[in-house]
Structure formats: C-alpha cells, structure tokens
Amino acid sequence: MKKTILTMAVVLLSTMSYAQFQISASTGYAIGSAGMKTGESINASGTENAYGSYGEGVNFQIRGTYFFNDTFGADLSFGYLNGADQTISEVDLPNQQVDAIARARAYGASLSMVYKFTNNVYGRFGALLKVGGKTEAVVSNKAVFSDEVAAAQGLPSGSYTQTNYVEDFHGVFPLGFVAALGYKYDLNSNLSLFAEAEYYGISLKRKDSEIQSFNTNVVLPDGTVVVEGLYTIDNLPDGYVKETTYVDELAHTNTDSSKKLAQKVPYSSFGINVGITYKFKGSAN
C-alpha cells in the first residue's frame, strides 16, 4: 500500500513539475459543412432549394489549456458565433416578394484533449455544447392586392401590404464534437501566435420560438403609407402566433396553431482560426 501511494505521489509530483497553463484568444470564419436544406427560392420559372448551415459565420473564442506533460493536455473553450445569413424563403413573383433569412447568435463551450505532435503542431478533439443564444429569423413580405380587393377598399391598382417581423428560435441544448489541427509560432517564452483548422459537428433540435416584433402597413404603388400598423405584435393576423412550441408528435385532430412538429437544424462547420496564446511564467515549453 505504501509503495502504491509513493508511486502515485511521484507521478503527481512529476506532473506538477511540468504542469503548464496557458490562455488563448482567437477569431476566425467558418463555412457550413454537410449543409442541409434551409429554405427555397421561388420565381416565375421555378423553385430552387437553398442549402446551408447556421454554423457559418464569424466566431470568437477564449480558451484555457492545461498540459499534464510534454504531450497531453486538457482544453476548455468558450466561444460566440455571429452567424451568416441563411435563406429561408426568397420569393420573386408579380404579386408577392418575400425575403426571409435566418442567422445564428450562439454561445458555445467545448472540452477537449490536446495532443502535441511536435512543439509547434498540435491537435484537439473533444465534446462541443451550445449553451445559449438563438437563431434569429428576419422576414420581409410584400403582398400586392388583387385589383378586386384594392377597388373594394378604395385603393389604386398595385397597392400592397408590407409586413416585417423578427422571430427568435431556441433549441434543446445539443451535444456535438469538435476537432482541430493547429500550428503555433513562438514569439518569445510566453507569447505565441497560432493558426488552426477546426471542424464542428453538431445539430440543434428546435424547442420553441417567439415573435419579437411585427408590423404590417398598407402602401400605395408610389410608396406612400396609407395605413400604418394594420397588424402589430399585439394584433397578429390569422396564421401567426406569438409563441410556438415544437413537439415530436402531433395528433391529426390538433387545432392548436401554437404547436408544430420539431425539426433539427444544422450547425456543423469547417473554419480557420487565428489567435494569440500566453503561457504563464514558470511553465515548461
């Protein structure tokens, strides 16, 4: 028993004598990988699918890494994703024009193991978790009145409604994985620059959504607004609800428009990050 305790103490002391802690800050840009269908583009000649990933965009990360020895370490990272616009609906027809996009505003964390191939080349692999944020949908919908409806309301031909609204979607906290391969360049004994290629594999299941703002105006062909706020967030038109819950099962007899079937949306991406690392004094190289 004493021998076992002595051996463990020696291993612990040798690890502590090497122990190196460093912090890093980085930014980068990621593109969608294994993109899934996000929406459709419709015009007079046909319909085209739009593909993408909400993981595309600019990211910022802060990372703490603790090396147990000259080869292995553990890495804890926190990041923010400012996602690029993804097409949800794009309609260009004589009587309707729709421009609906969605983008991620997400916070995430990862816990990874780090392996040094050389003093300059390293790899990371671990678990990825989205811990907060939203997918924000921004919609603009111009709907032209038919001549009959316009005449009935005393409006000139070509008058239309202009609807603009923002809806935030939230998801169940997902678990994914992250892998990266990087190269660091030492500026001195404490500071290093690094660049890395990073892959995120993750999807998010929708949980609920909420309309944050809503406005519909009636507009003349020359752009003059004749009715402002025909519909607002406190007076939504038929077919819209302020809050929606996403579920895995709906009965055929369901009449509750605030419930919809859940779906998974893609956040997987492949990106390049660049940043700077500070190694605390007294750490080994």
UniProtKB/TrEMBL annotation:
Keywords on record: Signal
Domain of life of the source: Bacteria
UniProt xrefs under Pfam families: OMP_b-brl
Segments forming domain Outer membrane protein beta-barrel: 9-219
Signal peptide residues on this chain, from the entry's feature table: 1-19
Record-linked InterPro entries: Beta-barrel_OMP (IPR027385), OMP/PagP_B-barrel (IPR011250)
Protein name: Outer membrane beta-barrel protein
Lineage: Bacteria, Pseudomonadati, Bacteroidota, Flavobacteriia, Flavobacteriales
